[in-house]
Amino acid sequence: MTANLTNDRRPRRRFAYRFPGAYHRDLMAQPWRGIGLTLLVVFALAGVRPARAADTPPVSAATFPLSDIKPGMKGVVYTIFEGDQVEKIDLEVIGVLHNAVGPKLDVILVRLLGDRVQQSGVVAGMSGSPVYFDGKLAGALALKLGTFTREAIGGVTPIEDMLEIEKSPAAPTTESAAMPARVDVPGEFAARASVGAGQFLVPIETPLVTSGLFPETLARFGKDFSAWGMTAMAGGSAPASPDDRKLQPGDMVGIDLIEGDLSISSGCTVTAVTGDRILACGHPLFGFGSVQMPMSRAHVIMTLSSAANSTKIISTGGTIGTLTQDRQTAVMGTLGAGPAMIPLDLTLDTPTEQKKYHFQVIESPQLTPTLVATAAYNGIVGSPAYGEGTTLQMDGAITLKGHTPVQLEDLFAPTDQTTPAAFYVATEVMSDFARIYSNPYELPQIDHIDLRVKSLTEKRWATIDNAWVDHSEVRPGESLSVKVLLRPYRGAPFIQAIPVTIPAQATRGSLQLVVSGADFLNRNVQSLAATSQGQLPGLEELIQLTNRERHNDRVYATLLQATPTMLVEDKELPNVPISAINVLDQRQNSGNARLLFQSTAGEWSVEMHQVIAGQHMLTLTVK
After folding, report:
1. DSSP for 104-115?
2. Are residues 130 and 258 in the same domain?
3. Residue 303: strand pairing partners
4. 590 neighbors 490 (Cβ within 8 angstroms)
């Protein structure tokens, strides 16, 4: 199965944690000491698994109907605050918010009771915690009051709505699985909860736990994580255990996005276990519909209380199954083997050493491109021998079943700006991967991503300052030398000659000669974007176009003439006569053709072994 191709643009959830009280103030006064102590505690506790509490959730499969829930009713919710110990928290019903998250989608408004929740409130990672009345399952805790409150007020997704996920199609759909960013609490309910008017509920945050993620990587890709409704934090990993699949309601599961030398996982609480199938979260994880993501056993290291947002810090263990549905009211998975993932191998060569990294990335059109870029960037900047003042030479490939490999070749040099060359490498890989993986023709089967990056010791880039020819009047078939003045980084300017031949069939008139680097041509002159927007026969033609993109380490001379070019699928037809254009306009199936109002009469280049930037225009007159 594959993920839903819906491009979900809804507002997203986000969270961050703060340390409470005097401890928080002490950490803020000595931030590096605080981070070190926190991580020491986190990883020291990562392998600790306290014994389960004797007070466990009921094993009965009976459910409590929403119609029988009344204000003032007493119930319980089961969740974990530390280790694998499921704890029972008392709660009281405030009321039922009808049509709160959509037509016929209600929310049970509850108040959690007891010292535990008075300190922490509703905690990030608590979503999915099962709620019972009279020993019968009524739903899952899924919402809480908005940020900057520790009021233990929560919203429960009714079990009837969660069970609707079993009727969801196995194939990807285009409908959104979004939950509203906020659910307003009516005044009468706010009064009953003693929280004042204007309150609203938001989905409980899902922790995004990372291991091996460098701060610089998080700084570069943190906004992408926030767009998924999550904020990354340090976590840990636990060894796999034969008992990992022995889940009960109230336990935690992780959804693994990247495995290997970098791990990124999210986590939420199990609501119900029926045979080899589990329900969890009580709200969407990403809202992608049908998915294939690995599930792992998650363990709570500790719970951090905060006036802004309390959160569980978790560690993840071995794979225990596959998440198959990510819908509006719940997520659903199957215990057993995990799904196939995309292997990514990264080799970094520096003048002093070679580093090799291996990652496994989930298959998801929405997430995989960014995850691939994150893993690649993290591997490059993580090497002690890497320095931001170096030029990076990329050489690699994306191999697919039944298709030509996608070539990943280019040169990237740092500039005086703050963006390191490693970021350009990562985003280039992301762009090429996204183009192929999210193509409109077929779902590609990615075999492997192999990325080799060589670190060169100096900044290798030059800017085009000027360009000229000995004479601007030329004849058909004539050869001439284009002189290009290049100014390298902190070096002496030099002149590079490019031999150019005027086409023998050139007609009298003006020609435009563009001297530039690859970036200008890829963006402006018959670019891939102009020929690949659903206009090709299939994926193979898209790969061929991708492999024909120009490289950063060459200086190009491109001769343009003012005659139309027809782009038909992956073919370029320059100098198309007006009669052919008129015929095409009259055909009903001409949607796979595009017209450009200039044609390329010729293109020449010289390899420079440094990144070339800038452009210069010349006008030639054919006699």
Report:
1. TEEEEEEEE-SH
2. yes
3. 312
4. no
Instruction: Summarize pLDDT for 166-178 with one digit per residue, the tens.
Output: 876 665 544 445 6
> How far is the C-alpha of 503 from the C-alpha of 509, rounded, in Å?
13
Pairwise CA distance, residues 112 & 98, whole Å: 20
Please tell me whether residues 54 and 176 are part of one structural domain.
yes
Same domain, 199 and 130: yes
**Rounded distance, CA 359 to CA 356, Å?**
10
**DSSP states of 174-192 as a string?**
SS--PPPS-EEPPHHHHHH
Indicate the DSSP class of residue 296. E
Q: How far apart are CA 581 and CA 572, in angstroms?
A: 14
Report the alpha-carbon distance of residue 262 to residue 362 in Å, rounded. 13
Q: What angle do CA 373, 374, 380 make, to 5 degrees?
A: 90
The parent domain of residue 349 ranges over 342-456
Together in a domain, 71 and 130: yes
439-463 residue pLDDT tens:
889 989 999 999 999 998 788 999 9
Q: Specify the amino acid at residue 10.
A: R
- State the pLDDT confidence band at 594, using cuts at 50, 70 and 90: low
- Looking at the predicted structure, is the pLDDT value of residue 34 above 70? no
How far apart CA 38 and CA 89 sit, in angstroms, is: 27
Give mean pLDDT, residues 189-196: 70
Tally helices (H) and strands (E) across the chain: 12, 34
**CA dist., res. 402 & res. 371, Å (int):** 24
Residue 114 φ/ψ region, left for φ over 0, alpha for ψ in the -120 to 50 degree band, beta for the rest: left
List the one residue out of 183, 117, 127 whose CA is nearest residue 150.
Answer: 117
CB count, 10 Å around CB of 54?
A: 5
